[in-house]
Amino acid sequence: MTPRTILLVDDDDLLREALAEQFGFEDGFTVLTAPEARPGMEIARSQPVDLIILDVGLPDLDGREACRELRQEGVATPIILLTAQSGDEDHIEGLRAGADDFLAKPISFVVLLERVHTQLKRHQASEDAVLPLGPYRFKPAMKQLLTADEKKIRLTEKETGILRYLYRAGGNAVPREELLDQVWGYHREANTHTLETHVYRLRQKIEPDPQNARLLITETGGYRLQV
């Protein structure tokens, strides 16, 4: 599956290193770290990040204010706030700052991991989702792919549906009949020829050499994404 990048911002060196190590043991995660808010915010602005874990009590800037600034700048990445306080007022203030979730210390990694998975799934289904896909950034809600130089590749509804479903398969092959069922639903005019035509057109848009596909791969009985 495509690795998810987590940005962990906490000034507690031991906690930060321990959490980074634990996420490193989990399949599908890459971890970036920062000891203060400002360096962490620069990372969030400068490179694709799938989720931010942000401590409230940072030495250079309150984590809630950092969250508020990122939201004002248009950063839609899910943010989980960590705090030593567990009161409702702190929780509400964090959510008002734009956080998606809130956890009080001491932290159970099992609980944190579950919250991370929940937020990633929720964000993937939202209009703000931006999914890494080969050399592109895939924006399903906008029906488009973005290249590294911000060039937009427009997709049809069915092309978007094909990519979204294959992306969710995490690099595993999906049978043609399953793709037809999930993207077209029950439609008596939809058949494998319909799917193959859409895949052909999609490859013309996203593959440098459509005759030698490297991203949208044909497998026996189906297709998969090289993620």
Automatic annotation (TrEMBL):
InterPro entries: CheY-like_superfamily, OmpR/PhoB-type_DNA-bd, Sig_transdc_resp-reg_C-effctor, Sig_transdc_resp-reg_receiver, WalR-like, WH-like_DNA-bd_sf. Residues 128-227 bind DNA. GO terms for molecular function: phosphorelay response regulator activity; transcription cis-regulatory region binding. One of its GO terms (cellular component) is cytosol. Pfam families: Response_reg, Trans_reg_C. Residues 5-120 form the Response regulatory domain. This is Response regulator transcription factor.
